[in-house]
Records
---
Amino acid sequence: MFELIKSGGWLMLPIILCSIVAMAIIGERFLTLQRKKILPFELTTQVLKMIQEGSLTETILRRIKLGSPLGAILASGLINRRHGREMMKESIEETGRQIIHELERYLNTLGTIASITPLLGLLGTVVGMIKVFSSIMLHGVGDPGVLAGGISEALITTAAGLTVAIPSLIFHRYFERLVDEHVLNMEEEALKMIDVMDGDREAS
């Protein structure tokens, strides 16, 4: 493996660095974007039950707010529940924008890695081919070993760049879709809470 990396030239270093960063982001996002961490099961139902029972204290509300992204959204609405439906919706939307920003953390970096690693591989290809043509100019076409070395460098960097870019792009799209799904579900839960509190629907 080391020999393969070495034969790819110095451009293998930024490609390897990109692969390490991409793997770290993918692992971190898998842990962070788990549904149970974003949308705890039955949280909205539990909150509505506490409101009906009159047991929702400031301490519990603070714990709900810090417990999960959905909890933060619900808590922002509950804090303003005495100011009417519109104020609740505005505060929920404002908190929701902050939550979305948190959920999308590092995704731009992952998308950038998916975009630049093929370019790094292409640059390696160009550098390798320049070496090939330079050796042809100096030595002619009589030394196949020199030609093979330049072509090998070109192919290795291209393959390495694509090897990093393809999974990075796949996971970038996957996490974007996952964030959209979580945001939609949180919006549904928040509207459910507002409707129940306004008496427009029954708690379920």
Note: The chain has a mean pLDDT of 85.
---
Amino acid sequence: MTTTDRGSLMVVAVLGGTGKEGSGLAMRWALGGYQVIIGSRDAQRAADRAAEMNKQLGGDYLVGKENPAAAAEADIVVLSVPYSAHKSTLESVKDLLQGKILVDITVPLKPPKVRRVHVPEGKAAALEAQTLVGDGVRVVAAFQNVSYEQLNKPEHKIDCDVLICGDDPAAREEVIKMAQAAGMRGIHAGPLDNAVAIEALTPVLLFINHKYSIAASGIRITGVQ
């Protein structure tokens, strides 16, 4: 089991956890030994989605709460929202993130051209998150290149790696553990500045999916044992 230094189960809050990507990760983390809270702007929606996932998993694994309540109770907060909601969601929980790890899986896609790289004003969503929440939060960028098609069936073996960027090596290592708990291999991919490249890979993968009529292309790093 994954525990904090207090000896209890580590709590992960997935803000935007009612969506496809967040839901898939949340179920895998719940099965992998974390206490998971589904966060949403609407508390009832979060509770309903958590109940649906519990039914799918066959047990009482997850709970649902409004985003601020979820963030307040968590040791690690995962941000899984569309880029259009990125800033407003962070602003709503900024004070509750201090002293914690924030795992930002947001990709700055610009609909309708989601298969074309869009570089935001702050160069990467994760860099914008770090600027917004301040140095009291250890921001890690990860899981952008994993398709929800691979995640939404917890029994499915995922055939791709997770590139993990962050300025704090210990925080990156915690997210490596989260990747392992979700059935994937995490790869240290350098400082948070490298999130620019990692986020930009997602529209490339979406283009590949479309071109080759597949659902879940991914990244594999060769040569790493």
Note: Residues 11-211 form a domain with the Rossmann fold fold (CATH 3.40.50.720).
---
Amino acid sequence: MSNEKTSDVIELRRKKLADLKDENVNPFPNDIRIEHTVKDIQNVIDSAPDTLKEEGPFFTVAGRMMAVNRFGKSSFIRFRDRTGQLQAYLRKDLVGNEAYALFKKTDVGDHVSLSGAMFQTKTGEWTLLANKFNLVCKSIRPLPEKFHGLKDPEKRYRQRYIDLIMNADVRDIFKKRSMIVQSVRNFLLNMDYLEVETPMMHPIPGGAEATPFVTHHNALGMDLFLRIAPELYLKRLVVGGFERVFEVNRNFRNEGVSTNHNPEFTMIEFYQSYATFEDLMNLTETMFADVAREVTGSATITYQGETIDFGSKWKRITLLSALTEIGGIDEEILNDRKKLIEFAATRGVTLTKTGRIGKIITKLFDALVEPKLVQPTFITGYPVEVSPLSRRSDKNPELTDRFELFIAGKEIANGFSELNDPFDQNERFEQQVSDRDAGDDEAHFMDKDYIRALEFGMPPTAGEGIGIDRLVMLLTDSASIREVILFPHMKSSEKDQ
């Protein structure tokens, strides 16, 4: 619909609104009460259609009018509530002259309420025969044209409310998102985990390598950071005696936006005492298969044309083996920083952090291996220098008991056996501070209170964080993270003003 035509429609609807007010008709009443939903009616149709007759039972429903077909003294409309869509038939002689005159001033997009019995049309469609009609809310702006809908991604994300009105598949994504979060929550609750809430404003950012957003608290006279992860607070709770704890959390990282990144995102983090990273890998396999079955009906899904099986045993491979077997890097140069930098240049991989070999290795992995990991794959054996909160491996103290989970070329989860040695943790923090002083803005800060907490003793513990947004992408076959976040962050537009 052109801007000029839209303006004409808006002006006409404003005129109708003014006329209604002049006639003492409230276009935004607040005394509407409904007794049924479309689903309630559909349940009766499915279970006891013989009970539905024109003389009753009667139903009172409300919803947004999505289509109208007027014939003078009678009209068909389609309206939709949160549970579904239904056809209604209005006759002037049944609803009365006044109500029918009001109906004639309504438009597609208006919210209406109706009462009546059910009948079947000549085509067999169950239809509400209205004997009462009310305007619930007058819409001023027209909906997009029915057959074109709302397709422009830019407008869909900026004006999600229109997207949800017009696109049933979008509504389904966010219904599934809610199911996914609830399913993961129930999985952990059933394993005797305790759900908690930890601060979202931190005096010291920690728990991940990321650039934080900074804010200022006037009364306290101090800067605070929107959390980049809840990890250090959750582990303080483990020290306090909560041996199994989790949080569905919002994190904020001052980074770029892409199909896989949004500066505000959702994760679930959980910690289990007397468990190892291997225990959590087993738990994750079971969790994902259970959630997939609950949300999609099967442990096997299709994502962007690829069949992904959550039900089979997942592949496990070390980081160094993945670099050689999948990334094509000669094993002989994996400990040679200079040769790795030269190799990266031949593959067009840009390295911004070349001071430490662990950073180079993980960057090469991100570029050469991660996109190829389609089936669920655990990568283990990360270097200590890129895992400042992870427990050292007993087999090789240069590596950690850590895994990252990759599916469909995306990192989905990160977990490890937690470092609970306060002296080792203090040394790791000091190294991170040195890295920060050397120009690494994403390195960890020193957190002395967390060290103090560890000095009181944290039992052997394993923890994991799962990216909810990316999990939702997988289970809804969505190519972009913006498709699964209701209001994704976007660059401001003049149209938003």
Note: The first strand starts at residue 59 and ends at 70.
---
Amino acid sequence: MNREKFIAELQARLSGMPDEERRAAIQYYEDYFADAGEENEADVIRELGSPEKVAESIKADYYGTQFNEEDFEHKDYMEKYTRGARTDSAGSAGTGFGGEGSQAGNRSRGNPQGQNQNRQKPWTDNRVKILLIILIAIVLWPLTLGIGIAALGIVAAVIGFFAFLVVAAVGIMLAGVVTAGVGVALLVIPPAAFIVIGIGILLFVCGLAATVGTVKLCIIVYPAMLRGFVNLCRRPLYGKAV
């Protein structure tokens, strides 16, 4: 088993969890592998244990259920798993972080442990990131305040612009109704009445089409703006957009 297979299997075994929690967990272990380096990939896999064990540990931590590490450390299970690990990474068995899963039980979500105590935890502690972001915002508050006000102004302008398009389209449609009504009142003068009614119908149809189009445009633009804002807020915490 290599890094790609480990992450793929872990992701598959976490498929029942909420997307945000699953992505955070996968990102954590991807960072952990990256922090260890490609040359230590086999050691990290032996340290963590099987993807099944890691997945069960994560789910137990999230759902508040009991996690029994002994289920993943008995002799038959470890022999079966380490046999597959040795096949994919020959020669690394003797240089792992421990023998036959002795360190596998030391791995818990959010706190990787191993024989190499000098290895630092990957940069995935969201609380530390949030604290640093708050501190930076406080230190640079005049700049962040200005940026925040400008951003809110731009968002308000965009929202207002598309809302104005909808209101304008509805106004054209209502103007068509009023114009057609005036034409009906002018039926005593048939030629003029037909012209006014025709203009009213034309305005109503154009206004209706514009209303439908602008409403659909708002349905596309507003959620896209919300997703962009959410992704912008998540990027400092998870290192990528969702």
Note: Residues 132-238 form one domain.
